[in-house]
Amino acid sequence: MKKINAVITGIGGYVPEYVLTNEELSAMVDTTDEWIMTRVGIKERRILKGEGKGSSDLGAKAVEELLEKTGTKPEEVDMIICATVTPDHPFPATANIIADKVNIRNAHGFDLNGACSGFLYALDTAAKFIETGNKKKVVVVGADKMSSIVDYTDRTTCVLFGDGAAAVLLEPTEEEIGFRDSILKSDGFGRVYLNMKAGGSAYPASHETIDNKEHYVFQDGRHVFKHAVSNMADVAVDIMKRNNLDSEDMAWLVPHQANLRIISAVADRMGIDPKQVMINIEKYGNTTAATIPLCLWEWEKQLKKGDNIILASFGAGFTWGSIYLKWGYDGK
Ligand SMILES: CC(C)(COP(=O)(O)OP(=O)(O)OC[C@H]1O[C@@H](n2cnc3c(N)ncnc32)[C@H](O)[C@@H]1OP(=O)(O)O)[C@@H](O)C(=O)NCCC(=O)NCCS
Fold first, then answer.
1. What separation in Å is there between the alpha carbon of 194 and the centre of ligand 1?
2. What is the pTM of this model?
3. Could you read off the pLDDT of 170-207 as tens digits, one per residue?
4. Closest residue by CA, ligand 1 atom 24
5. Does the beta carbon of 155 lie inside 6 Å of ligand 1?
6. Catalytic residue annotation
7. Helix/strand/coil (H, E, C) string of the chain?
8. Per residue in 243-302, pLDDT tens?
9. What CATH class has 179-326?
């Protein structure tokens, strides 16, 4: 029997309309466009407005587009995984809410929290279900409404994040394309440097947690930066080595979009030409689980069947990893 490979057969994406610029942020906190552009590389980010709107609203739009573009009927989807750190509610899973909104019924569905590595963790999990023959059509969606957990009086974090979602469809193939390899890691020592302290079982919401602003993202940026560069570059270089890829074999690097300086350092270590690195941080900021699929969504037309692509990420946990794919279809 031939080996079954898992291949991405389509992408959908969504970013909300409202554009939060560096100029607008400069009126809210003590920052400047110049500081944000030189230290991080973000010009603007999208924000989801509207009472009662959550990550599922972003995710549902992305999945709707995905189903339409790939001609997939909702009832054909047999699994949906949502990577998010900003679920609509602690439960039920945002995957279930997205499924309901797009009319996917009876599919195996759950959320996965790998923070900024969430999309890679979810894609890897989905690929295993396809490769074993257990599932035929799996939707993997990265969706985060980061504006719901950002303190817009804290200049060290509020300039970094934005809202967005993107989704891919994974299907089986016997061709030598699709998902090839993954290196995924985590180390909980990093939890003190990047977290949201309250709202879970350790510190449930109380007047005190709200007064202490513990329902917002906390980040010790300098520490996170240092680990992000070395860990992301290590796994990206390792996956190239163990698959005998050198920079000339590579079509694209798709890095998590947290900081332009981190992206450049990783691309440098891999020896990849900056023109082969997908970068859209300037327009969307850090959308957590959505950054990597949003890049694929934007670059889809330029992708060719057989392109060697490496995805690489680093995030809270700490979590980090790399995935090597051979792209499955010519962009259209
Ligand atoms: C957050 C980050 C952009 C901060 O950049 P940095 O160069 O490390 O900046 P620092 O935190 O060292 O702060 C330098 C100074 O700029 C100030 N500063 C911080 N944010 C600022 C802002 N928005 N505008 C102006 N000044 C700011 C700080 O207060 C500090 O001032 P001080 O020296 O007087 O104390 C950077 O550390 C980073 O990208 N970290 C990793 C993010 C990441 O990868 N996250 C993982 C996934 S989410």
1. 13
2. 0.97
3. 999 999 999 999 999 999 999 999 999 999 999 999 99
4. 31
5. yes
6. 116, 256, 286
7. CCCCEEEEEEEEEECCCEEEEHHHHHHHCCCCHHHHHHHCCCCEEEECCCCCCCHHHHHHHHHHHHHHHHCCCHHHCCEEEEECCCCCCCCCCHHHHHHHHCCCCCCEEEEECCHHHHHHHHHHHHHHHHHCCCCCCEEEEEEEEHHHHCCCCCHHHHCCECEEEEEEEEEEECCCCEEEEEEEEECHHHHHCEECCCCCCCCCCCHHHHHCCCCCCEECHHHHHHHHHHHHHHHHHHHHHHCCCCHHHCCEEEECCCCHHHHHHHHHHHCCCHHHECCCHHHHCECHHHHHHHHHHHHHHHCCCCCEEEEEEEECCCEEEEEEEECCCCCC
8. 999 999 999 999 999 999 999 999 999 999 999 999 999 999 999 999 999 999 999 999
9. alpha beta
Q: Which residue's alpha carbon is at the smallest distance from atom 23 of ligand 1? A: 155
254 C-beta closer than 6 A to ligand 1? no
**Stretch 60-66: mean pLDDT:** 98
Q: 225 CB under 6 A from ligand 1? A: yes
Say how many Å lie between the CA of residue 227 and the centre of ligand 1: 14
Q: Is the CB of 39 under 6 A from ligand 1?
A: yes
| Ligand 1 nearest atom to the CA of residue 256, by list position | 47
Question: What would the CATH number be for the domain defined by 5-176?
Answer: 3.40.47.10
Band of the pLDDT at 332, cuts 50, 70, 90?
confident
Domain boundaries, the chain: 5-176, 179-326
Name the residue of 32, 116, 119, 156 whose CB sits within 8 Å of the most ligand 1 atoms, as the mutation to test its pocket.
Answer: 156
CA 39 to ligand 1 centroid distance, Å: 7
Common-topology check for domains 5-176 and 179-326: yes
Distance in Å, CA 136 to ligand 1 centroid? 44
Does ligand 1 lie within 6 Å of residue 31's CB atom?
yes
